[in-house]
Amino acid sequence: MKKSLTGIVVLAVLAVVVIVFLKFISKPKPQKVAKVPTAVAAKKEIKVGVVWPMTGLVAAFGQSAWKGATLAQSMMPTTEDGAKIKLILLDNKGMKVETANAVSKLITDNHVKAVIGAITSSNTLAGAPIAEKNHIPMLTSSATNPLVTKGKKFVSRVCFIDPFQGTVAAKYVWNNLHAKTAVVMIEKDQDYSVGLAHAFMEAFKKLGGKVVGVEFFQSTDQDYSAQIADIKTKNPDIIYMPSYYQEISLFCKQARQYGLKQTVMAGDGAEADTLIKIGGKAVEGVTFTTHYDPHAAATPLSKKFLKLFKEKYHGDPDAMAALGADAYFVLLNAINKAGGYKATPTKINYWIRHTKGFKGVTGVITIDPETGNAIKSAVIRKVENGKFVYVTTVNP
User: Fold this and answer.
1) How far is residue 300's CA from residue 315's CA, in Å, rounded to a whole number?
2) Shortest CA distance to 335 belongs to which of 350, 348, 349, 352?
3) Among 187, 279, 161, 312, residue whose Cα is nearest residue 240
4) How many Cα neighbours within 13 Å face the side chain of 356?
5) 284-287 contact pairs (CB < 8 A, 24+)
6) By C-alpha distance, which of 367, 342, 348, 370 is closest to 357?
7) pLDDT for the residue 24
């Protein structure tokens, strides 16, 4: 009995040893954990300042551009190496002093690597010296006056310049409207209006046209009766008014009341739904040079942007929205080429100015590295039956 018990104990001990051994050799090996890129793991971001008017006289431009830029940011929110692009918007209220203060704050307090802005030429000119002094690239979506980039190394644009826009307008009224005489309305406190007016007059005269009168006004003017009376005596074939939508709509209402029937030709400052809302039937036939038309959208990015914009806002984007998106896309492209998260402002600026054949929302964009000016096509649109309609595209 004693021997049998001992044998049982020995067998039990052996069984435990075997079970423990089998469990040990069948234990799964620990898996290797994949390394997460540092930039993604740390959720790093690149700050980009945006200075546009959300309030004030040209708020419609800024609000539209912001729609375009934020939609573009949602389409491509990060750099190729995973850093998030953070847009910091400051409202310049359409004023020069506010613009200068905003650009300074973004650079000094927010430490942005680039600034998008401003909308108008006058405001961009107010902020540009600050960006220039701090070597921070400033990319404007829609400031078309040549002075905006003249003599500067860190200020560029994704829109065409006024000499091109003015020449396109002069050729259109000469060839298509068969205009031989013109009166030019100049908003004398706006660099945009002064520059574009001179570009148009120079091109129109070269074609053989005659400028029979030049009228001046200011942004705050509400009464155009004196200018209209003078225009009636000149009886031009067309009226060229390179101003903004508020002034154009008010002028047209008064001009039609006093019996002026001439076509009013304008620049891209005319394009805002507010032109039609304020002007109503008085702005029927107003024709203008601009940057974009949904029916002329040709690049894959343009088509995708148009589709998403319609889904989000239930309408077509205007030129300001399309240009706002292009400012974002061109800047993002430059940041990627400059090294992504580690890109310095100087390198970003280099690649902005070496943008070549970029297929954006408003068309194919090339930026002259010496001047910072974009080389691209212009679009002509007009008001017809209370809507903006596409007329034609003019290549550089």
Assistant:
1) 19
2) 348
3) 187
4) 5
5) 284/383, 284/384, 284/385, 284/386, 285/382, 285/383, 285/384, 286/248, 286/252, 286/382, 286/383, 287/172, 287/263, 287/380, 287/381, 287/382, 287/383, 287/391
6) 367
7) 41
Q: How far apart are CA 2 and CA 180, in angstroms?
A: 131
Exposure string over 317-343, b if 16+ CB within 10 A, otherwise e: bbbbbbbbbbbbbbbbbbbbbbebbeb
Q: Does 23 have pLDDT greater than 90?
A: no
In the sheet that holds 387-394, the strands lie side by side as 210-217, 181-187, 238-240, 263-266, 287-290, 378-384, 387-394
Whether the per-residue pLDDT at 3 is higher than 90: the answer is no
299-326: average pLDDT: 96
196-246, pLDDT tens digit by residue?
999 999 999 999 999 999 999 998 899 999 999 999 999 999 999 999 999
List the beta bridge partners of residue 238: 182, 263
Contact 194, 186 (CB under 8 A): yes
Contacts for 95-100: CB closer than 8 Å, 24+ residues apart = 95/56, 95/123, 96/122, 96/123, 96/125, 96/126, 97/126, 99/51, 99/123, 99/124, 99/126, 99/127, 100/126, 100/127, 100/130
Structure tokens at 123: 């405001």
pLDDT tens by residue, 329-374: 999 999 999 999 999 999 999 999 999 999 999 999 999 999 999 9
Order across the sheet with 364-367: list the strands: 358-359, 364-367, 374-375
| 349-to-73, 253, 292 alpha-carbon distances in Å | 19, 44, 25
